[in-house]
Amino acid sequence: MRGVAIIGIGCTKVGEHWDKSLRDLAVEASLRAMEDAGLYDADYVLVGNMMSGYLQNQEHLGALVADSLGLQGAGAAKVEAACASGGMAVHMGCQLIASGAADSVLVVGAEKMTDATTPEVTKALAMAEDQEYSAYTGASFIGLNALVARAYMKAYGVEPEDMALFSVICHKHALDNEFAQFRFPITVEAVMNSPIVADPLHLLECAGIGDGAAAVLLASLDGARKIADAPVELLASTVSTDKFSLHQRDDLTSFKAARASAEAAFRRAGLRAEDIDVLEVHDASSALGLIALEDLGFAERGKAAELIRDGGIEIGGRIPTNTFGGLKARGHPVGATGVYQIVELTRQLRGEAGKNQVGGAERGYAQNIGGAGTTITAHILGRVD
Amino acid sequence: MFRTHARIGIEGFGAYLPKYRIRIRDLPLAHGSPSPDFEKAICGPDEDAVTMAKEAVERALRMAGVGRGKIGSILCGTSSNPYSGKPIGTILSKALGMEGAILAADINFSGKSCSEALQLCLGLVGSGMVDYAIASGSDSIPEPGGKGATYSSCGAAAFVIGRESGSSIASIEGSSTWVMDALDTWSVRGSAQRRNSGRFAERVLAQCVIASVKDLLSGLGLSPGDFDHVVLPQSDPKSALDLAKRLGLKPEQMEAGFVLPKAGNVESLSGLLGLIAVLDVAKPSERILVATFGSGAGSDSFSLLVKDAIEGRERGDFLNQVSKKAYIDHKAYLKFLNRNSGGSA
Amino acid sequence: MSVPNYLREAPRRQRMEGTRCKGCGAIHFPPRAVCDRCGGRDLEREELSGTGELVAYTVIMYPPKGFENQAPYAIGIVQLKEGVRILSQIADCDPMELREGMRVEIVIRRIREDGGFIEYGYKFRPV
Fold it and tell me: ipTM more than 0.90?
């Protein structure tokens, strides 16, 4: 197996891009990544996207984006794994490079959500769930998050304010991220006073609706050394799945797929949680942020709130997390999220994170979740010296 | 009077009232003087005649202990099937796992829709066409407002009918009917407006009920005093009392079956919800007279003899249904009606 | 939802038809072709009891398309007597009165009317 490296990154701002189409966004992020790499070529184009079929009536995104980039002839495909579509696209890109099937792969995650009304988007998001036995009940995706949050709070005596603090810190981190959707500070009090979306979750602790695209250009490690000044290596790329529906699982307070993908990733990279300097987790709601810290081994079970209260996930803390705002504040253009995470970790490892820079960051971890803990990808990135 | 070749028994019965109640005094009334302490049931926003019928039929089947494969017909008296042309029985046959060689039809004869279904089931079982038949009735409130709608309620009832045997909880001694062309209360298809001919309507009701009851009693050689329980149509408090007086009935005969105060008047179930309340408390060897009335107009009457097997059955379902409730105010009532009368579930 | 889909699923949605593994006895809902406990492939259909208890619940304030007119409504995870867990709307309830561990039973209700016809399916209500 060949080593895999990131030789270029690029993204759009996350937001309400009324004047840009899904294609425009994907192209903009891709061109930035190729410009960053200084290589306007790819053997393969993978597009991470969840909802284009329903929201844009557009499938066949692989060839659509490849053609738009002038890459006719390249292999191309859309990769879909619900909210983990981006992470899964990066994972598939890694497989193509590692196996030698391709020497360069452009992975672009893109989602255009603001073309639809909120109920339509809510329905589209619920397509990640079993249509016949979950979505059928009228359960929204945030509703499933709420079930998790409630069970987690009950199991460990966690207070709503403890969870809200996670989102507060994400907003703090987004202040200096020019690509973030929500660049304003919030307080725990503001979260608690915001409308309930699905009890016990408030509006200000749930990821919103936004458009955006992020791209990475992957190459073999050996190839990358010839092209890029400071490539970042993908030390591990793993994925794990669980029982499809949340309600079928005995434990709602921890995701088996998160633990399994983390364990495999750490083993592959020969690292432990203590070796990670910067972390990106999938905080579709605040509760998922806390659970991720525990599932990935950065906090003991039920103790994530302590870590957060002690400043542990802030820049300068024990494990700086979601340093560009996470899903909550950077934004969560679903199929793009997993790629945004890789872009942001790469900025940290290259020392290009500006005011958000984690000093001496050498290794980063990204967790991307599809469905209610159903498909979870893990990526560990390391600086190549 | 109708007589069947075989003696017919009731094998099981079930009633359903939705959980939500509104007190009559909380309704802004345009007509009449209400009985303020009375209350009526209203379906939740996700209920309709189909879901209510399912509850009642399921209870009746459970009590009867009859295998679903033995059911030969399922008739449903209703004026509020959410589908036109597709009988409720088809949906129930799927939900209850008994699709197949079953006669399924909606019966529509306003107040006596369910009793008409019961009459037909007597014929189906009595003739030997089917082993067991289900007669049910189910209605939601179609429209708010209008005279007669004051007590208009939501609910369902069902009876499993078979040839009389040791397992029958009551035997049907005989039945009778009376029909005439009258316009007492009515609405013209396509119009939501319900019309009423006032005093004339009261006369039509009395004429039909008394005619069918008299025919039944003379056929059986019985008199009103022979019945331990009598259930009469009860679309409003006054008509039931007037009828009782004219038939020479005593208040104690009427007591168990007078359900209007607690359950309101479910359109298709005239009298039959009261019959279920009676069967819930009846003792072996008691005799029950039940008469129904449907606008348009007609009346069915039945004489039942309670059997020993009733003692072994779990009963009291009607009382349970009446006591499980949550009150709503007029605003919520209108909202519920709106949801029930169309649009999304 | 399409008409064939609705009718195909009706035995599951209206009378909780699941499967039992002839090998290890595990019960599943919805029906499976492969047992999720022992991997066995010899399974038979079985109707489930439809009674159980509430494991977790929430109230949906911002519903998906097709459910707009119903919000707010409660959904919850129900653990059936047989041990199987299912997701369901909780009917006939005041959400403030819901509690984990509460006993619930199946009812058939209108789910939605998306396709111009009425979808009937299970919900659970407090006993």
Answer: yes
